[in-house]
């Protein structure tokens, strides 16, 4: 990317040469064009993956939303985010409410929402909540951004030492899967904001379209008189038109809809919802590879971001191109 940006250095930002959006989009388009990737994409939704046996080998039958299906020798599951995580108080809401008045971040597309003059409560302390707050305010909404602890300012989800061997060396030497999971949990330590996002949010609080409520945890919500009434642990009360939950996702292999048939036919161990894969991120006994957050026990705390995608791709590619590593 630095080579691509040789004549656009002003679009790389310190301290790590982070690319601006336009530069990064152009870089991706250039890769797609150079490797002729646009002709390799088939647009459809996979609804089911069935492991099947054919003479002397195993295959996968992929069922598609369109009704079509096809057979694949190998499958790489790179589906991104996990299962939406909802706070306990959401399940305890007794009053009926319109479903579009309480949304998880995965359900929100700012391009299609009309929120001008609306009062929106965004709950969460991670970068997603920051992006939602900025997007809503730019459309004319009034926003309360609430986090149950002090907002953390970090450049990375986990310490940069996890990008290389500084911390990963000991992580890979740890053979106890439960201890590995604890290391992942400790390294990520919940959501955080980048310095650039925090600067933008602070500026918005001065202009009053944004209110930051830190160390504030919701314990109850009621839908009354066409608005939300929110009660917090410290007995503060808030009123708003909509609630957006930026409360993260859970990575649980036993709840992943595309892995139901795989787990039934080729059960594997999992720790805190994460599967135990081989060193190539391969499901035991199958040519099924897992990327993203579900591969964290093998890749480490950065499994779900771009650095993890690179590490995961390198492992999987090795198994794909070396015949000696292939299963029948």
Automatic annotation (TrEMBL):
Record EC number: 1.14.13.59
Molecular function as annotated in GO: L-lysine 6-monooxygenase (NADPH) activity
InterPro entries assigned: FAD/NAD-bd_sf, Lys/Orn_oxygenase
UniProt cross-references to SUPFAM superfamilies, sorted A to Z: FAD/NAD(P)-binding domain
Cofactor: FAD
Endpoints of the signal sequence: none
Pfam families reported in the protein's UniProt record: Lys_Orn_oxgnase (PF13434)
Catalytic activity: L-lysine + NADPH + O2 = N(6)-hydroxy-L-lysine + NADP(+) + H2O
Assigned keywords, A-Z: FAD, Flavoprotein, NADP, Oxidoreductase
Pathway: Siderophore biosynthesis
Family listed: Belongs to the lysine N(6)-hydroxylase/L-ornithine N(5)-oxygenase family.
Record's protein name: L-lysine N6-monooxygenase MbtG
Species this chain originates from: Crocosphaera chwakensis CCY0110
């Amino acid at each position: 990317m630095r080579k691509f940006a040789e004549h656009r250095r002003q679009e790389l930002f310190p301290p790590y040469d982070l690319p601006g959006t336009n530069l990064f989009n152009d870089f991706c388009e250039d890769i797609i064009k150079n490797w002729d990737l646009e002709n390799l994409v088939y647009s459809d939704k996979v609804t089911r993956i069935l492991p099947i046996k054919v003479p002397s080998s195993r295959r996968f039958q992929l069922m598609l939303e369109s009704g079509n299906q096809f057979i694949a020798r190998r499958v790489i599951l790179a589906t991104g985010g996990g299962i939406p995580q909802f706070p306990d108080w959401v399940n305890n809401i007794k009053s009926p409410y319109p479903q579009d008045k309480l949304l998880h971040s995965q359900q929100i597309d700012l391009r299609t929402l009309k929120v001008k003059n609306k009062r929106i409560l965004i709950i969460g302390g991670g970068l997603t909540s920051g992006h939602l707050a900025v997007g809503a305010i730019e459309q004319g909404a009034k926003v309360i951004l609430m986090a149950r602890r002090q907002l953390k300012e970090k450049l990375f989800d986990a310490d940069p030492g996890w990008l290389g061997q500084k911390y990963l060396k000991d992580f890979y030497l740890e053979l106890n899967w439960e201890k590995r999971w604890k290391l992942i949990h400790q390294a990520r330590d919940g959501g955080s904001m980048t310095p650039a996002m925090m600067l933008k949010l602070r500026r918005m609080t001065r202009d009053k379209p944004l209110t930051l409520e830190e160390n504030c945890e919701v314990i109850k919500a009621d839908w009354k008189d066409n608005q939300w009434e929110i009660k917090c642990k410290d007995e503060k009360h808030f009123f708003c038109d909509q609630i957006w939950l930026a409360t993260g996702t859970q990575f649980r292999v036993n709840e992943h809809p595309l892995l139901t048939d795989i787990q039934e036919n080729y059960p594997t161990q999992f720790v805190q919802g994460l599967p135990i894969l081989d060193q190539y991120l391969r499901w035991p006994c199958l040519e099924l590879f897992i990327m993203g957050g579900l591969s964290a026990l093998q890749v480490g705390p950065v499994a779900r971001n771009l650095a993890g995608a690179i590490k995961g791709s390198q492992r999987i590619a090795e198994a794909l191109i070396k015949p000696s590593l292939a299963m029948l």
